[in-house]
Amino acid sequence: MSEFWDQKYSRDDYFYGEQPNTFVTTQACRLTPGARVLVLGDGEGRNGVWLAEQGFDVTGIDASKIGCEKAQSLAKRRGVQLQVICANLLQWSWPENEFDAVVIVYLHFMPEARRQVYPQAVQALKPGGLLLVELFHPGQLGYQSGGPKDERMLVTSQTLADELADMRWLLLTEGYVWLDEGPGHQGQAYVSQAVGQRLPA
Q1: Which one, of 117, 69, 73, 123, lies nearest residue 99 by Cα?
Q2: What kind and span of H or E run contains 76?
Q3: Using a CB cutoff of 8 Å and minimum separation of 24, what contacts does 152-158 make?
Q4: Residue 120 near residue 90 (C-beta atoms within 8 A)
Q5: How confident is the model at residue 1 (pLDDT cuts 50, 70, 90)?
Q6: Residues 165-197: pLDDT tens digits?
Q7: Mean pLDDT for the chain?
């Protein structure tokens, strides 16, 4: 899979642009100043770099070596510190109770892998920490604005609620958005959005 993303990111520009995802920018106000934030599948770094610009202590992780290099380059160009880890999330040694927030934006897996990664993302949160999620919904198959074409990789808000039971959901919704995120995401899309708080142990 890393080869797939290396190929997408092997271009002079940024495949999903250099600007952050809109959902991330609208939900960052929920985070405490200086919060430790883990951004999963951060690709070329657009979300991690923006969060670092807001004063958060950010770690981005991605399986693509080229994506990680471009993330570091973007952080340097913007003058912010961003810790970048190049690793496969299915094989990574996950931290526990370490982050104030975990961000998952358009990081799609087949169901078995998803049920491995997403709960580990919750375990990486401190109790009371926040999980920010925007994913393509099965309704996205009717649009050409991006995302997987295999419905099994697409996620409803109810799927998130069912598979991540130890969360208090502050936001759990789905609907239309307009994407303008580089060549990779352009046009109307149908997504699931969620903000969950990890319950105390």
Answers
A1: 123
A2: helix 65-78
A3: 152/110, 152/111, 153/108, 153/109, 153/110, 153/114, 154/108, 155/108, 155/114, 155/192, 156/192, 157/192, 157/193, 157/194
A4: no
A5: low
A6: 889 999 999 999 999 999 999 999 999 999 999
A7: 95
Tokens of 24: 């991330």
| pLDDT for position 10 | 87
- Cα–Cα distance for residue pair 16/9, rounded to 1 Å: 9
According to DSSP, the β-strands at 185-198 and 167-181 are antiparallel
Q: What is the CATH number of domain 2-198?
A: 3.40.50.150
CB 187 within 8 A of CB 179: yes
Residue 11 has pLDDT above 90, yes or no: no
Q: What is the pTM of this model?
A: 0.96
Residue extents of the structural domains in the chain: 2-198
Instruction: Write the CA distances from 2 to 41, 74, 194, integer angstroms.
Output: 11, 20, 27
**Between the CA atoms of 17, 75, 53 and 187, what dihedral angle is there, to the nearest 10 degrees?**
10
Give, to the nearest 10 degrees, the angle between helix 46-53 and helix 65-78: 30
Give me the phi and psi of 89, to 5 degrees please: -65, -25
Mean pLDDT across 22-51: 97
Q: Given the structure tokens 């999963």, which residue do they identify?
A: 40
Q: pLDDT band at 5, cuts 50/70/90?
A: confident
